[in-house]
Specification:
The complex is a heterodimer of chains A (194) and B (246). In chain A, 65% of the residues lie in helices and 2% in strands. With 194 residues, chain A is mainly alpha-helical. Chain A has one domain: Arp2/3 complex 21 kDa subunit ARPC3. A two-stranded antiparallel sheet of chain A has the order 1-2. The relative contact order of chain A is 0.13. Chain B is mostly helical and 246 residues long. The chains are: A mainly alpha (194), B mainly alpha (246). Chains A and B meet through helix 1, helix 2, helix 3, helix 5 and helix 7 of A and helix 2, helix 5, helix 6, helix 7 and helix 8 of B.
Chain lengths: 194, 246
């Protein structure tokens, strides 16, 4: 049996911490895709899925936040039912119901939000980042999610881009509401950790 | 819901890396062209993939029925026109051809999910992505699969607790905020514990199995094992003269 005789290269404490947080945020993103808040009448249930991308970017910065969302997508490709409606598979990420682009958008959105909020690879404490910057990061994340998701949808469904945008338009008020909720969370200081 | 099922089919025996490669290549090919003959070829290949994994196409339809339903709306949306004639056939057909490329791609990825255990994908990721990034992605994939059900049950518990306290009457933004804040709190508590657990287990970039060496007491124990293993032979050898005389 081949054996390795180099000294053990332990993963640094800080890396372990960021990695563990990324793992749990990936699991949280997956869980938020399954658990929604039912709305009265015939309104679609209020999904909290984008919050996974928001939190990952704000708490972990561009690199580790990106890793969290990459893990989420990889686990789905590996076959765990982590996408909305318990879907899985590479096919769902690529085309799905035309919404695969939004999954990739979450990943890029987390990277952009993390980049704007932290402006460096290693995440800083959220206490040192102004609320205005965090809000800007969230808004940029939503813009990126739509900028990737809508053209992707138009490609997958063979629709003109304007038509795809019109299809997604009814969801925009909900996303504005989500931004409002996320901003309330940021302003309330709920994300600041010791 | 599709998930891995152990089996002995051709697709089960393949390396996850080759299956991932086929899947990605197939998706690229499926979206390369929308001509009818091309589509027919793509469907035929998807049928072969289903056959290789012995996966019933009806199960694929059942697993992805919501997706198919939404896909069916694509041509309808494309065809709707503002003003007479209210519905245009040509853009609807263009969209129909685009949408028709999706089911085979989903079928092929369903075969992958059906025939590949998560640890197979994890191993493939670790080998395909070089260096430390690959290792983190590989280990992370395994851990996320482990934590996903726990975090889902955390969220469900929070939601139930909220409803039990009359939370259903609160405005939806308030409920969303509470669910998100509580959810992230529990996830962070779990991540702290996970970080401690990883460090306690010497989470390393180059994990090695402990070196194995035989101690003094190992020899007799192993010797007894060998003797016990050979005992049926000795027994039959001892019995054979008796059997011969009988």
């Amino acid at each position: 049996m081949a054996q390795q005789h180099d000294s053990v290269a332990l993963v640094g404490d800080e890396t372990v911490e960021h990695f563990a947080t990324a793992v749990l945020l990936a699991a949280l993103t997956a869980a938020l895709a399954q658990v929604s808040i039912p709305l009265p009448g015939s309104l679609p249930p209020f999904s909290l899925q984008p919050f996974g991308a928001f939190f990952a970017g704000l708490l972990l910065g561009p690199l580790w936040g990106g890793l969290a969302l990459a893990l989420y997508i990889l686990v789905g490709i590996a076959g765990a039912p982590v996408f909305s409606n318990a879907n899985a598979g590479l096919g769902y990420v690529l085309v799905g119901q035309g919404t695969g682009g939004f999954l990739v958008g979450f990943l890029l959105g987390a990277v952009v939000a993390g980049g704007i909020a932290h402006r460096q690879i290693t995440p800083r404490s959220l206490e040192t980042i102004g609320v205005a910057t965090q809000v800007l990061a969230l808004v940029a994340a939503v813009v990126v999610i739509y900028a990737v998701g809508v053209p992707w949808m138009s490609w997958a469904l063979g629709l003109p881009v304007q038509r795809a945008a019109a299809t997604m338009a009814p969801y925009a008020p909900f996303d504005l509401l989500k931004i409002a909720v996320a901003i309330a969370i940021v302003r309330g200081g709920y994300l600041v950790r010791e | 819901m599709l998930s891995y099922r152990p089996g002995e089919t051709f697709a089960h025996r393949l390396d996850p890396r080759s299956k991932l490669c086929f899947q990605a290549g197939f998706a690229v090919a499926a979206f390369a062209d929308t001509s009818l003959s091309w589509l027919a070829g793509v469907y035929a290949l998807a049928a072969l993939a289903l056959l290789a994994g012995r996966l019933d196409p009806r199960r694929v339809v059942r697993a992805y029925w919501v997706v198919f339903l939404v896909l069916a709306l694509g041509p309808v949306i494309a065809g709707i026109a503002v003003g007479p004639p209210w519905f245009r056939v040509e853009p609807a057909l263009t969209s129909l051809r685009a949408v028709a490329r999706v089911p085979p791609v989903l079928a092929v990825s369903a075969v992958y999910v059906h025939t590949t255990p998560v640890r197979g994908t994890r191993a493939a990721i670790e080998r395909l992505v070089p260096g430390r990034a690959g290792q983190l992605l590989g280990v992370g994939t395994g851990l996320v699969v482990r934590f996903f059900p726990l975090v889902v049950s955390d969220l469900r518990r929070i939601r139930t607790a909220m409803v039990a306290r009359g939370g259903a009457n609160r405005p939806v933004t308030d409920r969303a905020r509470r669910l998100a804040v509580q959810g992230i709190d529990r996830a962070m508590a779990r991540s702290d514990r996970l970080a401690v657990a990883l460090r306690a287990r010497c989470f390393a970039w180059n994990p090695t199995l402990p070196a194995l060496t035989f101690g003094r007491m190992d020899y007799p124990v192993a010797g007894i094992g060998v003797v016990l293993a050979l005992s049926p032979l000795a027994q039959s050898a001892a019995l054979s003269p008796l059997l011969a005389t009988a």
